[in-house]
Amino acid sequence: MKTAVVIGASGQIGRPAVEALARDGWEVTAASRGGGRDRAWGDGVRTVRLDRSDDTALAAVVGDGCDLVVDMVAYGAAHARQLTSLAGRVGSAVVISSVSVYDDGKGRNFDTLHEPDGFPAYPVPVPETQPTVAPADASYSTRKVALEHELLVVADRLPVTVLRPGAVHGPYSPLPRELYFVKRNLDGRRRRVLSYEGESRFHPSSARNIAELVRLAAARPGARVLNACDGEAPTATEIGAAVDAVMGVETETTLLDGPPDGSVGRTPWSVPLPVVFDMSAAERELGYRPVVSYAESLPETVEWLTDALAGRDWRECFPLLAQVYPDLFDYTAEDTRFAA
């Protein structure tokens, strides 16, 4: 039986990736900091506790060798070198990077978003050949590029598929963008405000679709970099309508023809220019077809968010989201802005 080690198995992408590999006949070792204490995987999956930063512990999990390592949490050149040190004991690897590595060719990228005229003007859609930021330790994006570069240098000894997801969505997300619409509906807010006329597009990536790419890449080892997004990139208006349909509510949307007015109209998708990625390489090289559409993925996300919020403050549930978007539910500002 083919053997795989999944690092970060208890996370948002790790869970469906373990499931996809197990269904495909792999014998999976699901490694995570918590050791899978909150998860019963079933036959074909064993769980182990792993500190990702401990080189010796990782080498022990790999043991005498395995056919595949899938790394959900690799970040920076040091993690890349940790993986490449296993070359000869590992058949191939699949490593998660990010679309935030892309530059628009004029020095604008995810690291310049909040600078004057700093929003990147990407081609639509963005191919994997688009320039990236330079590798460095300066930011999340530059460290992901450093990770990619270190891995691909030794691709002749360890074939690596690097996957670049967009706005990852699904249960167990630390940054659930859909909360913007779900919480408003739960709070009885029947009016929402969307900037940029509700036309913002930031390409989503279902955790289940990423897992499908992991499964396909595992079966076809190679040295490659692929975008890892859904089959469609809906607008903010379309996302809101899809959430409403799942929750069975009717809402009214007020559109701003430009950027947010302070916190009013700001959403996790509020971008002035489209951020959409080309999936043709994954289709061509791996035969990728999304296993779920954005709308089809929403019911389990809405259910998970609703359960998570029950009797709890949203900031407690999702501290990372609260840190990035502290004024996401500033109802007072909205009501003041549109007072009669």
Give the ordered list of helices and strands: EHEEHEHEHEEHEEHEHEHHHHH
Over the alpha carbons, how many angstroms does the gyration radius reach? 20 Å
Largest sheet: 7 strands, parallel
- The N- to C-terminal Cα distance equals 68 Å
**Residues in helices, as a percent range:** 25-40%
Strand adjacency order, main sheet? 3-2-1-4-5-6-10
Shape, please?
globular
Tally of helical segments? 12
Please give the oligomerization state of what you see. Answer: single chain
Strand content bin:
15-25%
Segments where pLDDT lies below 50 for 5+ residues?
none
Structural class: alpha/beta
Number of strands: 11
Q: Tell me, rounded to a whole number, the average pLDDT.
A: 95
Characterise the protein shown here.
This protein has helices at residues 14-23, 55-62, 77-84, 140-153, 179-186, 207-219, 236-247, 280-286, 294-309, 314-317, 319-324, 331-337; strands at 3-7, 27-32, 45-49, 66-71, 90-96, 160-165, 167-169, 191-194, 204-206, 224-228, 252-255. Helix content is 33%, strand content 16%. It has 340 residues and is an alpha/beta fold. The strands form 3 sheets. It has a 7-stranded parallel β-sheet, sandwiched between helices.
What attributes characterize this protein structure?
two-stranded parallel ribbon; 16% strand; 340 residues; single chain; 12 helices; seven-stranded parallel beta sheet; globular; alpha/beta
